[in-house]
Design a protein that fits this description.
nine-stranded mixed sheet, globular, alpha/beta
């Protein structure tokens, strides 16, 4: 009898240890190189997965996402969140859904009929709809939450609308609003982007898809509805169409991740705004930004990229110039409940630790 009880007690202790270890699993966020598109994998402490966007059409970006899923030991995507319906954000979904089970699709609902063909093609959008039909659709509006155990995933923007009430810890008056200059109204899918603030106890991160200048201003003016965050994924790949000082400096990120490509994003204005944010400890880039002349389409007024407008190489995941380079490296944030986190560069195998916010 004593042997049987001892065996039962040992088994119970092992079981409790497994539960405890699982409960202590950190939050992991993988920023995937899709050459200036969008693809971010979030793995919750409970083991649930959230993939935000899926890169461009074609095998290249899908394979890069699948490789990261493998590194993260993820065999299915519990939630796919489409920030908006442009080809560099949902282009990979038709093929990805054939390779990996996707259980739920989160988006802002009907497409933007006013935009015409700029988002890509009807075939692209129909491919997304066909993939979504195989899972469970979830249309979200500001104020909603994506129900992932162990995380608070707040929807802060969707379909051109924004939060009307501050998140916990937000709501303070924003003195930066006084100097804000509006840009021309944006009627594209970008302005309808689904944006999120994700919190894991004391850690928080902000990702707004390709939300544009005026819509970002609405989130923080006259009051900052978002509060402060630890990690900021630069909006719109770091293009000057997004990232006003009124938002970037108000949320006071400790670390910023710029999901740029070698010839897209990391515009001089947006890069400088992020780099000068109060309290910023480091800016990390998915790519070295090549030098290029101003581009009126992206509201660039100054030359971008080049030696003076890139961070040191240890903070850059990919240095290669060619868009088809292999392998493609990622950045990973590992966050803990006390607010501390680590950024890992898969190219250098180097990491940097950041303690809890003081």
């Amino acid at each position: 009898m004593r042997t049987i009880l001892s065996t039962i007690t040992l088994a119970a202790a092992v079981s409790l240890s497994v539960v405890f270890v699982r409960a202590q699993r950190p939050l992991e966020i993988y920023y995937i190189d899709v050459e200036g598109g969008g693809a971010t994998l979030i793995v919750s402490p409970s083991g649930e997965s959230l993939l935000v966007d899926a890169g461009n059409p074609g095998a290249r970006d899908v394979q890069r996402i699948v490789d990261v899923l493998s590194d993260a030991r993820i065999k299915q995507i519990d939630y796919f969140l489409a920030t908006h319906y442009h080809s560099d954000h949902i282009g990979g979904i038709p093929e990805l859904s054939n390779r990996v089970p996707i259980k739920r699709f989160v988006d802002h609902g009907p497409e933007n009929l006013d935009e015409g063909k700029f988002r890509g093609s009807d075939d692209l959008f129909n491919g997304y709809l066909a993939a979504r039909a195989k899972g469970q659709p979830l249309q979200v509006k500001p104020g909603d939450k994506v129900p992932i155990a162990g995380l608070d995933v707040f929807i802060v923007s969707s379909r051109g609308e924004r939060l009307t009430a501050a998140l916990p810890g937000g709501g303070a008056a924003n003195p930066l609003c006084a100097g804000f200059v509006r840009q021309e109204e944006d009627k594209s899918e970008n302005a309808r982007s689904v944006g999120i603030v994700l919190r894991h106890d004391r850690f928080s991160t902000l990702a707004l898809g390709d939300l544009t200048w005026n819509k970002e201003w609405e989130l923080v003016c006259p009051n900052n509805l978002l509060g402060v965050v630890d990690v900021y994924l630069t909006t719109h790949h770091g293009l000057d169409l997004s990232g006003p000082r009124a938002l970037v400096h108000a949320v006071r990120p400790r670390v910023a991740i710029m999901n740029n490509g070698p010839r897209k994003g990391a515009s001089s204005g947006a890069w400088t705004t992020v780099k000068s944010a109060p309290g910023l400890e480091d800016l990390w880039q998915l790519h070295y930004a090549l030098q290029r002349p101003p581009n009126a389409m992206f509201n660039e007024t100054r030359e971008s990229g080049g030696p003076e407008l890139n961070v040191p190489e240890r903070f850059i995941a990919n240095l290669a110039e060619e868009a088809a380079h292999t392998p493609a490296y990622y950045l990973r944030v590992t966050a803990r409940p006390d607010g501390s986190f680590t950024v890992f560069n898969s190219r250098t195998k180097d990491s940097k630790d950041y303690g809890p916010r003081r």
